[in-house]
Each structure stands twice: as C-alpha cells, then as structure tokens.
Design brief:
30% of the residues lie in helices and 20% in strands. By secondary structure, it is α/β, with parallel strands linked by helices. The structure holds zinc ion (2 copies). The site of one zinc ion has 7 residues, from loops. One of its GO terms (molecular function) is metal ion binding. It holds the Pfam family ADH_N. InterPro entries: ADH-like_C, ADH-like_N, GroES-like_sf, NAD(P)-bd_dom_sf.
Length: 451
C-alpha cells in the first residue's frame, strides 16, 4: 500500500476554449483545505487527499472516454477553467475518510462494508444514498449530485480520484460477481466493468423508462388505457378484457448507434425478450444511425449467435431506410417508443417523425442550449410524451450488472468485430483519441492510466 502515494500523478486535462487536451503531471487528487480535526483511518500520506470524512480515494485501473466528454471538449458546456477530464472510472479503494467504520449505523451499507483494497465501480455522478431522491431511487438528482470531470470535481482520466459521499456513490465489484454462478467469476472481463460507470446503465435506463412508461404499459401488461396503472375504485367493476396479443405487438426505434446506442439496443432486446417469454408479446426494433461504421458495429453485435432467434425483427438502418421500415411495419402509424441516444435537435426531429400518436420519446442524449425543435402544437397533436435526462446510474446498477454478465460476448472483448470496447490506450494517446472520437472515427476507447 505504501507505493500508492507519490505526490503527483498523470492526468488528462482539458483547456478552454475548446479542442485542447494535454497530459500533465498534477497533484494527487485535489489536496488543500483538510481540517486537522478530521480523523483519518488510513496512511498519513493520504492526509492531503481526504477533504471530508465521507470521501474515498480510488486508484484508477481503467477510465473511459465518453460521448458526453465531447461536450466539454468542443467548448459547449460554458466551462472556463481547465479541468481533469472524464467521468467513467473503475479502480481500487486506497484511502477512506473517518465515516467508514464498522459502527457506521443508519447509513448506506458501504460506510461499514467498504475496505481498503476493494475493487469498485463509480457512477459518473456523486449520490449520497441518503437524501429523499436517493431513497426514492432517483440517484441522478441527489441533492449532493456532482458530475466527475468538472472544475469543481476532478475527473477520472487520472491515476487517482477523490470520490465524495463514497458510501452512497460507489458500488463494489464483489456485489456484481456475487450475482454469478460460483466458479464463473473469471468470465467477467475487468474492462467490461468500466461500462457500468455510465453507458450500460444509461442504455438500460433508456429502455426501461420506455417499457415502464404509462404510454407503453398497455402493450406490456395487456391492460387497456386507463386501466394500465392505478385504477380508481369507481372504475374497477368496468375493467375491459385483457388486450389480445395481436393488439400488443411493440415497435421501437433506437436513434444513435454510438457506444450508448449499442448499450441501449442490447438492453432493450434483453428486456423485450423477457417480456416476450412471460407474455408472448412480439416486438420489432429499428436501430438507426447515419454513420456506416456505427451501423456495421451494431450489425456485428446482432449477428452474434447468442441473440434470440427472433432477431430478424431487428433492423439496422440509415435515416431514410428507417422511415421506410417504420412506415411498412406499422402501416404508417409509427413506433410505440423511440430511444433517443444522441442529444441534438436533428435526432429529436427524427424521433418525433418516427413516434406514433400516444407514443413516447425516451431521451438520454445530453441536449444543449438550442431551443427544442418542436412546437407545442406538434406535441399536442401526437399526444407525445417526452422523458429527458440523466440516468440514475447508482439505482440502475443491479439491472445493468445482470445485462453485463449475460452479454459478455458484446461487452467483454476488446477490439473484436462485435466488441463494444474498441481499444485500451495509455494517456499519451489521449489527444489523438479525443480527436478521432470527436470525428466519429473510433468507438469506445478506455484509458489505462498506468500504461
Ligand atoms: Zn459517460
Ligand atoms: Zn442523495
């Protein structure tokens, strides 16, 4: 353990106004204002890094480059100070604040369970696990929420990172491998765990928030509207018969087949297969992207032998083809739901075009400042629902972990034709891969900070 703390580390830093990535030597996480009154449980050399008793310091083993890093990279986030990039990381706990103790009662379990040396996954935002939002499962809107990789909270493209509210934020890798049959833990690739920091839970969230939505539940549970959810007493006696299966076929589109789009498509198919198995409901999915290499990656994933035999109900298409496919499948009516994974106005315009009346657009792309492209009349005329926003990663980790375990053929490899992860590189290649990723010329890239 003594080797861990030199006073400096290597980190990927972004400089304003845009497109300026440098690899620099910086202090090990942010030190400064430590109160001498805060007792520290671990090595004295860690004293500089623990700023609050709820902090953990994580030695990073892998960090991700993510599509939403590009918003800062391009200068779209109104950030004016240099910062350590990255919000996706996994690693090993090397220091804990005083809150971590076997007698930490009435707090999230990790305050008593987490130990030095534990392997952990961190969601891309801090969540305390204790506030009203966290208790309700909406960890993305924790009152202490903070995104890693902003000037205030240095990011994960570094060798060490400080994790605030760590007992609520972190997730132990042990609790993932414990979901696996004994003896099979070795089949879970370490690199795949990085995908749990953001993109796999985000993809699963895009799918689940559609499948749980009241606009979609009549098809999922067979109860016609408005009997698909809470039913007032006065309606109970007039419940109509269950919808016949021929009325319950579901049609979805996924817009955007970058790494999150692949995660969304795989998650959607995983969840739809379970619905099909339980109830016989059939489904069709069109996965859409104008970029040919992204479509090829999606095709390779869908060609894996492990995908269910009804995979012919999934079509990968460019924008024009997708419009034709949806029109043909639905008699011109449109999709029940659209998973919009891009976060710009052209994607949203296409989503509106493809969605049916009384349908849903589940949007997890990080939209920016421009006004949305739809008028109120257009929203009214389709009775369309919009669900926008950040994934509650911490709350989604159990379901995302189960998909990760089952889909190691997609998430476990590196650089294979059907692998989501394209390559693992050292920080020296950071400027180059940011540039390639920005231009859509590479897929999911991970950094090994020690390479
Ligand atoms: Zn991300
Ligand atoms: Zn909270």
């Amino acid at each position: 353990m003594a080797e861990i703390y030199s006073k400096t580390q290597r980190a990927v830093r972004w400089y304003p106004p845009a497109y300026d990535i440098r690899v620099e030597t910086v202090p090990v996480p942010k030190s400064a204002a430590l109160s001498p009154a805060i007792p520290i449980k671990t090595l004295t050399s860690c004293l500089r890094s623990i700023l609050h008793p709820d902090d953990a310091i994580v030695k990073i083993t892998l960090a991700g480059l993510c599509g939403s890093d590009l918003h800062v990279y391009r200068g779209h986030e109104d950030v004016n100070d240099p910062l350590i990039c990255g919000h996706e990381f996994i690693g090993e706990v090397v220091a804990l604040g005083a809150s971590f103790s076997s007698d930490a009662t009435n707090r999230p379990a990790l305050y008593s369970d987490l130990k030095l040396g534990d392997k952990v996954v961190s969601p891309f935002t801090v969540s305390c696990g204790e506030c009203h939002f966290c208790r309700a499962g909406i960890s993305c809107r924790c009152i202490h929420s903070k995104l890693f990789g902003i000037p205030d909270l240095p990011g994960g493209q570094a060798q060490y990172v400080r994790v605030p509210k760590a007992g609520g934020t972190l997730f132990k890798v042990d609790s993932i491998t414990s979901l696996m049959p004994p003896g099979e833990e070795h089949t879970l690739a370490d690199s795949s765990l990085l995908l749990l920091a953001d993109i796999l839970p985000t993809g699963a969230f895009a799918a689940l928030q559609a499948l749980q939505h009241p606009k979609i539940s009549p098809w999922v549970n067979g109860s016609a509207y408005p009997y698909n959810s809470f039913v007032p007493e006065v309606m109970a006696s007039s419940r109509p018969p269950a919808l016949p299966l021929e009325d319950r076929a579901l049609t979805f589109a996924v817009i955007g087949l970058g790494p999150v789009g692949v995660c969304a498509t795989v998650s959607l198919l995983h969840l739809l297969a379970e619905i099909h198995e339980k109830s016989g409901v059939t489904f069709r999915v069109v996965a859409v992207d104008p970029n040919a290499s992204r479509r090829e990656k999606m095709q390779s994933v869908l060609a894996l032998p492990s995908f269910p035999p009804n995979i012919d109900t999934v079509v990968v298409a460019d924008i024009e083809d997708a419009k034709g496919v949806v029109a043909r499948w639905t008699g011109g009516v449109g999709c029940n739901a659209i998973l919009e994974v891009v976060g710009n106005n052209s994607a949203l315009t296409l989503a509106y075009e493809l969605v049916r009346p009384f349908g849903l657009i589940s949007s997890v792309g990080v939209h920016q400042a421009p006004q949305l492209p739809l008028t109120g009349r257009e929203a009214y005329d389709k009775n369309v629902s919009f669900d926008f926003g950040r994934c509650p990663v911490r709350s989604m980790l159990p379901i995302a972990s189960s998909i990760l375990i089952k889909r190691q053929d997609v998430f476990g490899g590196i650089g294979d034709q059907a692998s989501l992860i394209e390559k693992v590189v050292g920080f020296e290649e950071a400027a180059e891969v940011y540039d390639l990723f920005d231009k859509g010329r590479c897929g999911k890239v991970l950094f090994d900070p020690w390479q």
